[in-house]
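re: ur question from the group chat, yeah i did fold both. here u go
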Amino acid sequence: MNTTKTKVCSSCESTFSCGDISVENKCWCNDFPPIFNLSDGGDCLCPVCFKEACVDKIDAYLETMTPKRALHNKALSLPKTEKLIEDIDYYIENDKCVFTTWFHLRRGSCCGNDCRHCPY
């Protein structure tokens, strides 16, 4: 049984469906990296605002990254996900997929292909 709730985004005030994570059909937000919580009194964010918040948090983290820090970064300890998210794990440029620095950090090592955003 899939139970969803209609919620109001605490950022933009749009309505959206929120899945019940206590059932097998987990909420859409579980596809995103678990990199922050809303413990500051906010409620759930809509998909657009949630993605923007993730990108902002990742960008702030990446500003602190050096090749030495990349070897023991926090992204390695996050649960592995099968789903790649556009603008977080990759972006499209000239019909080609370009992996982000975040993707490489989650991967955990250099592949030796001289990737544009390799942090290693």
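okk and heres the other one u asked abt
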Amino acid sequence: MKKFSFESLEVWNDVKLLTKDIYIITKSFPEEEKYVLVSQLRRAIISVSSNIAEGSSRMSKKDQAHFYHIAFSSLMEVLSQLLISVELEYVRESDVEKLREKISNIGYKINSLRRAALNR
């Protein structure tokens, strides 16, 4: 089966694993958050992988960089929502710290992709 270019990107695969983590962690959120914070967190993390995939398919380096920028912004949205989830006592701070480390590494890789696209 043919693979698309984004599937071979290490960062896209890292985000795919983080997506699984986010889905697992949000399963324990209260029912009243199902259509609010749970939905928002899941949409934001899906946006990260989607924008990396879309950016990798763009012909223009400027377009690529734009989608990588959006991916990074969505990643920061995920972090923000996780920090709020700690304050609301939906998740433990120690769990978010583990995710924060993954987010930091992914953010670095996304920014590297963006810089590489702009410098070509």
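fwiw on the second one: The domain at 5-118 is CATH 1.20.1440.60 (de novo design (two linked rop proteins)). The longest helix spans residues 61-87. idk if thats what u expected
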